[in-house]
Amino acid sequence: MPTTTPSFLSPNPQRYYYHQPIKFHHSSYTPSSATTCTMPHWPRMEIASSRHRRKDKVLVIMGATGSGKSRLSVELAKLFPCFEIINSDKIQVYRGLDITTNKIPFHQRNNVPHHLLGDVDPSHGEFSPSDFRLHAGDLISDISSRRKLPIIVGGSNSFLHALLVERFNPESNVFEDESSPSISSDLRYKCCFLWMDISFPVLSEYLLKRVDDMFDSGMVDELAEFYKPGSDNRTGLRKAIGVPEFDRFFKQYPPAGPIQDEVHNPMREGAYQEAVKAIKDNTCQLAKRQIGKILRLKRAGWDLRRLDATEAFRSVLMSDSHGGDGGGEEFSDIWKKQVLEPSVKIVKRFLME
Q1: Predicted TM-score of the model (pTM)
Q2: Ranges of CATH 1.10.287.890 domains, the chain
Q3: Rounded percentage of the chain residues whose pLDDT exceeds 90
Q4: Pairing mode, if any, of strands 83-87 and 114-115?
């Protein structure tokens, strides 16, 4: 583990202007004898010989944007206090735009250590899959050496692939380049994959609601402050969904004065709604691409344990349509039975392997 922090990594901010799209009721669920991590043979084993070392264990929570990955990771980390979370969302690694990028707020982390979440200085340009492989790999080594277990959490499958495969070619994009070799199932860690899945019609409807919640929480003000005329929106944090869509709006109507007054000006309402629609469309398209990549990883032989959260998220949408509190206790009950409890069983078996 490097003794100094690389220049493009910056201290993680302690304050987030973040919405809570689902009004979660925190579960009091406690699995029998699961709240301690008693592993007499921890995954980072002693060197068996000069040539062989047993692989470090890694828990991976994957899924499309908006599928509840962060919630599950924090709940598991509270039940198994030896867990630490490493973010694998390639936009959330950057500092800034906390509403736009949907970072989990500090107060909802429940004192669980989070790494590479808002740590990268966006002024240093692109944080590549190779960068992620290097720095997340160092974090895994450090966490494992302290007899704790890393949870990799995020929707960026290109980052997951770069980190986890035994041999990674930074010049090849296995998800987009048809001439690239097939995805390898030879992994450099002993992995347990939890795949958060939601039927796409339900997920799409929820994502539309989430975008509305983001705007209610001040996303436009955040984007207006971030706006810089003439910037390149093809790299780093500026690739975040919301930045290029509203850059076009701000280019036509430069922000000045109270931004809410500006965007709801009747002369500008059409352009504003066009930007909002583009964000919603692009968010749903992102989710569709992410699901496609996950299916490719599964076909390549990655052992993904599917957790179906469809009914839990449907309860959120049904409650919202009836003027409820976003799912509340009904959501929590379904989530516990269909997502949390199955996850705990899988993780307990994984820890004892």
Answers
A1: 0.86
A2: 205-282
A3: 70
A4: parallel
